[in-house]
């Protein structure tokens, strides 16, 4: 027969992880604190959860903020723009003093340039993706030059703000700010979590999808988040988002992600660094 004390423990057990992470609403946190004062069993669970959180914090490196990743992408675009005139100058015909025939066809040179650019981009993505705050540390918002629309207090308000309810398109930088700021008004269990999941899966901009990843990680106490991250793995095609999702499910110990990681590790269209990261993730989860 279940005693009243055991019934209370059972009801509050699901709230303990969020209580340890200080993500519960004030009323729920007070309720848990009152129960813990008289329940040794739940006290032990809280101690174990805190020890696990400390271990994860120690294992995961400190990381750059979202702004750094966006600044890197902006810098990359600037470098590409600077290289364009130089490439045009190289391809311009030389004066008719002497004709030098290149040993390397233009197509081969262009292919090597593409390969080199891909390696640099993916390497930066691996570095920044590994260093995202998948250990409970918060990430600051992205500073942009124009004011972003307000999200409102409802999922419809956030969705309309992201899509541009007045018929005007919302820039990627403003969508990043909306997604980042949404966690200030959203708690685990809020319907707005589904809007963030949809943004992760369907927004056309890579940086916006990465911002949605971070926002969902901060709301990881919501049971929908783990399932959403697992289901998003086969949807994503950008290597930075793929690597970020792999690191997140590994940090959260989502073992049901293993089948999706196995498929990703064998996907012929995935970059080698992504397949290697998926294989490493499988080894950590099994």
UniProtKB/TrEMBL annotation:
InterPro entries: Anti_sigma_zinc_sf, ARM-like, ARM-type_fold, Znf_put
Putative zinc-finger domain residues: 9-43
Coiled coil (UniProt feature): none
Recorded superkingdom: Bacteria
Protein name: Putative zinc-finger domain-containing protein
Species of the source: Hymenobacter antarcticus
Lineage, uppermost ranks: Bacteria, Pseudomonadati, Bacteroidota, Cytophagia, Cytophagales
């Amino acid at each position: 027969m279940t005693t009243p004390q055991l019934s209370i423990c059972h009801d509050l057990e699901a709230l303990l992880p969020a209580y340890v992470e200080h993500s519960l609403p004030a009323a729920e946190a007070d309720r848990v604190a009152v129960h813990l004062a008289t329940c040794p069993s739940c006290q032990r669970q809280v101690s174990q959860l805190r020890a696990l959180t400390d271990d994860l914090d120690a294992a995961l490196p400190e990381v750059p903020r979202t702004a750094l990743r966006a600044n890197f992408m902006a810098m990359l675009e600037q470098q590409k723009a600077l290289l364009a005139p130089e490439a045009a100058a190289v391809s311009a015909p030389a004066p008719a003093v002497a004709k030098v025939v290149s040993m390397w066809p233009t197509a081969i040179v262009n292919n090597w340039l593409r390969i080199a650019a891909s390696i640099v981009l993916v390497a930066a993505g691996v570095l920044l993706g590994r260093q995202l705050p998948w250990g409970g540390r918060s990430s600051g918002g992205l500073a942009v030059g124009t004011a972003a629309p307000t999200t409102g207090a409802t999922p419809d308000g956030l969705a309309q703000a992201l899509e541009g309810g007045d018929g005007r398109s919302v820039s990627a930088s403003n969508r990043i700010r909306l997604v980042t700021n949404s966690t200030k008004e959203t708690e685990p269990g809020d319907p707005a979590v589904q809007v963030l999941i949809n943004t992760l899966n369907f927004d056309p901009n890579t940086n916006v999808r990465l911002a949605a990843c971070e926002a969902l990680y901060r709301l990881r106490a919501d049971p929908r988040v783990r399932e959403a991250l697992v289901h998003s793995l086969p949807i994503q095609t950008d290597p930075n988002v793929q690597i970020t999702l792999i690191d997140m499910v590994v940090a959260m110990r989502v073992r049901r992600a293993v089948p999706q990681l196995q498929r990703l590790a064998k996907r012929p269209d995935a970059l080698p660094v992504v397949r290697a990261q998926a294989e490493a993730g499988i080894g950590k989860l099994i």
